[in-house]
Design goal:
The chain is of the alpha/beta class and 337 residues long. The protein folds into 2 domains: 142 residues, Rossmann fold (3-Layer(aba) Sandwich), CATH 3.40.50.720; 164 residues, Dihydrodipicolinate Reductase, domain 2 (2-Layer Sandwich), CATH 3.30.360. The chain is built from 11 helices and 15 strands. The longest helix has 17 residues.
């Protein structure tokens, strides 16, 4: 696979921008980094991250990136509220785009971006990292193949313990935690079960630390003969270690928990692993329990290697533009919009 010449637009406060740029930087055999662009108020809000992650790389203007035909791809990693604005600029300039999830909450703007990408034929790739999680990816493939029988419930949980500043920032979005983290879980449920027939959003303000943003997210996703639930929070002690997904079917149950176990292998670079438990029935109807732990993996490598393969025409994006649009609409509904 040939090398991709790429630039990063933006540095976000609470999402994956530093990790995305770091992953690009440690793989010079695959990515030639042209430089980075700072937009909005990032020079002030992300000062420490800029020094840590962009040091040694060239700062470019937005116009330099958009008007340079040798820069064929960009990672758009601004704060969520600005994502669609800068992704649209990159789309208009004919760039391949990897965009932080899920986009700002402007549906007409998202629809315009999708149509621009459709007309250009360029790659539109979003930052849902659990799409590339080895155990989750395998579980979804098996569910689609019918190995668990009729799926009647998916339960997905993704929480952590955030500081006050981060939880105040959740107020940037309708739905708060549902928009910020819940988007990952909506994606997983939809991959398995499709678009729900009905959604009941139950996002809540805990009021802990006198912060009044929707820092506890919950939604019920109803299907024909099935009900799934997603839950996420920003005040949960031990929440990261309880991240999980449970797939319940007529032939068996599979639980991935914890979704991620951090393992620091090299200075400044962490690896993940994950554990899985499966309950299935043998030929006599007896329950059989199996346990699996996957090999360590780097969270963003497969994400960005897959993007590069799509840009090079060596891989087709399994997440179509129509799916991305339907997912975005479902996320907004889960947020109570």
């Amino acid at each position: 696979m040939r090398k991709i010449r790429i630039a990063q637009i933006g540095m976000n406060r609470y999402s994956h921008a530093p990790d995305v740029f770091h992953t690009l930087s440690i793989h010079p055999e695959q990515f030639e980094i042209a430089g980075y662009v700072l937009v909005e108020d990032e020079r002030e809000t992300c000062a420490a991250k800029i020094e840590s992650f962009f040091k040694g790389y060239k700062e470019l203007t937005l116009e330099e990136v958009l008007n340079d035909p040798t820069i064929e791809a960009v990672t758009v990693e601004t704060d969520e509220i600005h994502l669609l604005k800068y992704a649209q600029m990159a789309a208009d300039a004919g760039k391949h785009i990897h965009m932080e999830k899920p986009g700002s909450q402007d549906l007409p703007a998202f629809e315009k971006l999708i149509e621009t990408m459709r007309k250009s034929g360029k790659v539109f790739h979003t930052g849902y990292m659990y799409r590339y999680h080895p155990l989750i990816k395998n579980a979804i493939e098996r569910a689609k193949a019918g190995e668990f029988g009729t799926i009647y419930s998916v339960e997905a949980h993704m929480s952590r313990l955030d500081n006050k500043a981060a939880r105040e920032w959740f107020g940037t979005f309708k739905g708060g935690m549902m928009f910020y983290l819940g988007c990952h879980l909506v994606d997983l449920v939809m991959q398995i079960q499709g678009t729900p027939k009905k959604i009941i959003p139950l996002n809540t303000v805990t009021g802990i630390d006198d912060i009044h943003t929707e820092d506890l997210g919950f939604a019920v996703m109803q299907y024909d003969n099935a009900v799934s639930v997603i839950r996420m929070g920003g005040t949960e002690v031990g929440g990261f270690d309880r991240r999980q997904i449970v797939i319940c079917g007529s032939k068996g149950t599979l639980e991935i928990r914890p979704i991620e176990i951090f393992r620091f292998e090299l200075p400044g670079r962490y690896m993940n692993s994950s554990k899985q438990t499966e309950w299935s029935l043998d030929e006599n109807g007896k329950t059989v329990v199996t346990h699996t732990e996957c090999e360590p993996f780097q969270r963003y490598e497969d994400v960005l290697f897959s993007f590069a393969a799509m840009v090079c025409g060596e891989k087709e994006n399994p997440y179509t533009l129509d799916y991305e649009l339907e997912l975005f609409k479902t996320i907004l509904t889960c947020c109570g919009m």
